[in-house]
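REQUEST FORM: STRUCTURE PREDICTION
Request ID: SP-0412
Submitted by: Lab K.M.
Chain count: 1
Length (residues): 285
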Amino acid sequence: MRIDLHTHSTASDGTDTPAELVLGAAAAGLDVVALTDHDTTRGHAEAIGALPRGLTLVTGAELSCRIDGVSMHMLAYLFDPEEPALLAERELVRDDRVPRARGMVARLQELGVPVTWEQVARIAGDGSVGRPHVATALVEAGVVPTVSDAFTPDWLADGGRAFVEKHETDPFEAIRLIKGAGGVAVFAHPAAAKRGRTVPESAIAEMAAAGLDGIEVDHMDHDPDARARLRGLAKELGLLTTGSSDYHGSRKTCVLGEYVTDPEVYGEITRRATGAFPVPGAGGV
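STATUS: Completed
RESULT:
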C-alpha cells in the first residue's frame, strides 16, 4: 500500500480542487490519501464525491498552533468535524486569517512592494487565506522567484519584515480537542528548520505525555539526519511515525506520494480513531 497522509487543496492553500486532488492521488498510484487543509474541513465533501474506486480518503485538517513563540502545525486525522469544541477553535483560527493577511499586505506596501489585498483575495479564492497566498502575490509582483523564497526574514518568515501573527492554538489544547473529537494527533514536520525556529525535543516529550499520537518524519523539509533523529525520538517516546508529501499542487515542488506512511502505522491510526472512518472510493460521480 502507498499511503500519503498530508495534502492540501483549494479549500486552503493548495492549487488543486479537492476533486482534482483525489483523482491525482489515484493517478499517482496511491492507495490512501489524507486531505488535511489548514484549519478547515470544507474540502471533504467534494473529495468524497469524486473519490475514485481503489482510493481511500482519510479526512483530516492541519491545525495552526504556537508554543513559547514557535509556530507549529498539528495534523488531526479522522475526528468528528461537527464536535463543538474543536469546531469552534478551528473557526476562531480561520476567522483570524483574513485580518492577518490584510496586515501582511499593509506591511509589504509600507516596504514598497506593489501587492494589494484584492490580489491576495483573488489568489486565495474560496480557500482559507494564508501566507502562501501572500507569497504567491510576491511571485506575481516579481519580488521573489518562488513561493518558498518568500518565507525568509526579508519577507514572510516568522519574525520577518512583513510577518503578522494570528491566533494559533496551544498544542496541548489542540491535542485535547482532537482527542475529544475522536481524532488522532500527529505533529507535522517538527524538524523543518528552514521554516524558522523549531519546537525543542523536550516539548515534544511533554506533548507525548499529554496524548500526542505521532510525529511526521518522512517529509521534504527533513534531511536524512533529521529523519534519523526523529525516528529515535519517536521510538524513545512511543510515538507513531508518518510520511507524506505535504502536497500543495503547483504552489510547491513536492509531488503526491513523494513520501509515504507504513501500512502498519496507518492501521494503528485507524484503530485509534473513533470520530470518523476512512472513506473507500466508490467510483466518483
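NOTES: The longest helix spans residues 97-110.
Reviewed by: T.R.
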